[in-house]
Design goal:
Layout (H helix, E strand, L loop, with lengths): L1 H4 L2 E5 L3 H12 L4 E5 L2 H8 L9 E5 H4 L3 H11 L5 E5 L4 H10 L3 E4 L4 H11 L30 H14 L5 E4 L6 H10 L8 E5 L5 H9 E2 L11 E2 L1 H4 L4 E5 L6 H13 L1 E2 L8 E2 L3 E6 L3 H6 L5 H7 L3 E3 L10 H13 L8 E2 L1 H8 L6 H15 L4 E2 L7 H5 L26 H15 L4 H8 L3 H11 L6
Parallel strand pairs: 1-2, 1-3, 3-4, 4-5, 6-13, 6-14, 7-10, 10-13, 15-16
Antiparallel strand pairs: 8-9, 11-12
Helix pairs in contact: 5-6, 8-9, 12-14, 15-17
C-alpha cells in the first residue's frame, strides 16, 4: 500500500546513538527514519514533501528542555493531525499530563523499549478511525504489591491469584504467562513480596530491545576483556540477585543457547560469567513472564525444551481482560483513584453509561490499555465524572456490541434557574447538546442528524459554547 511505502518517522534529537537505536527499531515495522537537531529544522522538514510525507514525529525532551510543552504546541500548530511522540527521561506523571495537554499523542520514557515504540507508532497512525486515545502511555503510577489489593473477582482471575499465593511460599522457579498488559510483572512482584525472600535482593531483567550479546552479559556478567568493549568486569543479574529473586520479563526473548544455559543454572545453581575460567554457585529464585504456557511455547519452538522442563508445571496463567468483563468496572474505579492522586490531576467518578461502553470493548492491550485510556480521558475531563463523551472514538470500535444507552425521561434539561427565571437560551442549548452526545454515545454524525443541524455547525456550537473534548 502507498501509505506503508511512505511511512516516515522524523526524529528531533541531537544524540546520534539514540537516533540509530530508534531507526533500527522502527525499521522492523517498515518505517524509515530521518533526523533533525532542532525544532526549527523539524518545522521546515514538515513543510516539505519532496522526500516523502512525515507520518509521525518523535521529540526528545532534551532538545526542548524546559520549553517542551511550548515546542509541542508549536509543532501541533504546524501539523495539526501529525502524531507527536514525546520522549523523556522523567518519570513524572505531571510531565505526561502537561505534554498531552500541549498536543502530544503519546509519551515514551528512556531507555526506549522496542515493543513500546513500535506500538506507539502503529497505534498513532491508524488511518481509518482515530484510535490515539487507545495508545498506552508510559506514565508511572505506583501499583500495589499485595495480593489482597489486586482488583478482580472473576473466577479465572481469583484462581490464578490463589495459585500464585501458594507458589509464592516456595523457592522453585515460576513462570507467569499471559497476554501483554495482563499484569504479569505485577503478579510476579506480588509473589516476591509474599515470599520468604521478600527482604532479600530483587532484580528485574527486561529483555525487550536488548541484543543477544547484551542479554548474556546482563544475565551472567562478564570479565574484563571478555569481548570488544568489555573494559571492566561487570556482575550480571543472577549474581546481583544471589540470595534473593530474579525476575526475567519476556523470557522467550532470550536466544536459544542462552535459554539452554539458564536451564542448566536453574537446575544446578552454577553460573559462569562471560570470559571467566570457572563458574560459581548461586542461590537465586528465578521468576519469569512469558506470552504463553512454556510447554506450549516449547512445542512451537519458541522456548528451549530444557528451559520449559526447568520450570516444570509451575505456571500461573493470567486471563485476558476480555475474559473477565465483570472486573472492568472495579478496575476502572481503582485506576481512576490512582490517577487522581497524580500531580496535576484529580479524582473523577464514572457514569454507568461510560462503564457500559468500557465493558463492551475487547481490550487487546488488557489492563495496561484500560489504564492508559482512563489516564488520557482524565487529563482532558473538566467535569466531576467521566461520561461516554470522554471516549469519543471508543463507540466506533465497539459498535453495536455496546450496551444500550440508559433512556432519558422528561426533565433531562433544566429550563428554570434557582431564582425561578428561565435560563439563557445558550445554557439550555449547551445542555441539550451534552445530553444528545451522551445519549448517542459520542457518535457526532448521529448527534448532528438528531438535532437537525450539520456536523460542521455542531462542531462550531461546541466551540462557541465551550463544550470541550466532545469529538
Amino acid at each position: 500500500m502507498e501509505e506503508d511505502e511512505l511511512r516516515l518517522l522524523l526524529v528531533v534529537d541531537r544524540d546520534p546513538a539514540q537516533v540509530r537505536l530508534v531507526s533500527s527499531i522502527a525499521a522492523r515495522a517498515g518505517w524509515r527514519t530521518q533526523s533533525v537537531a532542532d525544532v526549527g529544522a523539524a518545522i521546515t522538514r514538515l513543510a516539505r514533501t519532496d522526500d516523502g510525507r512525515v507520518c509521525a514525529l518523535l521529540l526528545d525532551s532534551e532538545v526542548a528542555r524546559e520549553e517542551s510543552c511550548h515546542v509541542i504546541g508549536t509543532i501541533r500548530e504546524a501539523a495539526p493531525s501529525l502524531p507527536i511522540l514525546f520522549l523523556t527521561q522523567s518519570a513524572s506523571p505531571l510531565l505526561a499530563v502537561e505534554a498531552m495537554r500541549a498536543g502530544a499523542t503519546d509519551y515514551l520514557m528512556q531507555p526506549i523499549a522496542s515493543e513500546r515504540l513500535l506500538y506507539a507508532l502503529e497505534s498513532s497512525t491508524q488511518s481509518d478511525v482515530s484510535r490515539d486515545e487507545l495508545a498506552p502511555l508510559a506514565e508511572k503510577i505506583e501499583a500495589s504489591l499485595d495480593f489482597d489489593m489486586m482488583i478482580g473477582s472473576a473466577p479465572n482471575f481469583r484462581a490464578a491469584l490463589a495459585r500464585a499465593a501458594k507458589a509464592a511460599r516456595g523457592h522453585g522457579p515460576v513462570i507467569v504467562a499471559g497476554e501483554a498488559g495482563t499484569g504479569k510483572e505485577l503478579l510476579a512482584r506480588a509473589m516476591r513480596s509474599s515470599s520468604p525472600r521478600a527482604k532479600a535482593p530483587f532484580i528485574v531483567l527486561h529483555t525487550a530491545g536488548m541484543s543477544p550479546g547484551n542479554l548474556e552479559s546482563a544475565l551472567y556478567g562478564h570479565e574484563k576483556g571478555a569481548f570488544p568493549g568489555a573494559f571492566d568486569r561487570k556482575s550480571g543479574a543472577l549474581q546481583d540477585a544471589d540470595g534473593g529473586t530474579l525476575l526475567i520479563d519476556d523470557i522467550e526473548r532470550l536466544p536459544p543457547a542462552l535459554q539452554e544455559r539458564l536451564a542448566h543454572t536453574i537446575a544446578t545453581g552454577d553460573a559462569r560469567p562471560m570470559g571467566a575460567s570457572h563458574s560459581f554457585r548461586l542461590d537465586v529464585r528465578v521468576l519469569a513472564t512469558a506470552a504463553d504456557d512454556p510447554q506450549l511455547l516449547a512445542a512451537q519452538g519458541v522456548i528451549a525444551p530444557a528451559l520449559a522442563d526447568a520450570f516444570g508445571t509451575a505456571t500461573i496463567a493470567l486471563p485476558p481482560l476480555r475474559e473477565r468483563t465483570g472486573d472492568v468496572a472495579p478496575l476502572t474505579r481503582h485506576f481512576l483513584a490512582l490517577i487522581g492522586e497524580q500531580p496535576g490531576l484529580r479524582w473523577l467518578g464514572v457514569t454507568d453509561e461510560a462503564l457500559a461502553l468500557l465493558e463492551g470493548y475487547q481490550w487487546p492491550g488488557n489492563l495496561r490499555q484500560l489504564q492508559a485510556v482512563l489516564f488520557r480521558a482524565a487529563v482532558f475531563c473538566d467535569r466531576d465524572a467521566l461520561t461516554v463523551q470522554d471516549f469519543p472514538q471508543l463507540f466506533d470500535i465497539v459498535g453495536e456490541h455496546a450496551a444500550a444507552p440508559v433512556p432519558v425521561h422528561g426533565g433531562g434539561v433544566t429550563l428554570f434557574g434557582p431564582d425561578g427565571h428561565l435560563r439563557t437560551l445558550e445554557d439550555i442549548e449547551a445542555d441539550v447538546i451534552r445530553l444528545a452526545i451522551g445519549h448517542y454515545r459520542g457518535r457526532m454524525s448521529e448527534v448532528a442528524r438528531r438535532l437537525g443541524i450539520g456536523r460542521s455547525t455542531l462542531y462550531r456550537k461546541l466551540s462557541d459554547l465551550g463544550i470541550d473534548n466532545a469529538a
